[in-house]
Amino acid sequence: MSKKPAFGRREFLRAAAVAACVAGLSGPAFAQGGKIKVGLMLPYTGTYAQLGVAITNGFKLAVAENGGQLSGRELEYFVVDDESDPSKATDNANKLVTRDKVDVLIGTVHSGVEMGIVKVVRESGTLHINPNAGAGAATGALCAPNIFRTSFTNWQPAYPMGKVLADRGIKKVVTLTWKYGAGEEAIEGFKEGFTKAGGTVVKELFLPFPSVDFQPLLTEIASIKPDAVFVFFAGGGGVKLIKDWQAAGLRGKIPLYGSGFLTDGILDAVGNAAEGIETTLHYGDGIETPKNKTFRLNYAKTYKLQPDVYAVQGYDAGLLLAAGLKAVKGDISKKKEMIAAMEKAKIDSPRGVWTISKAHNPIQDIYLRKVVGKENRVIGIAQKALADPARGCKMN
Ligand code: PHB
Question: How far away, in angstroms, is 382 Cα from ligand 1 center?
Answer without folding.
Answer: 20
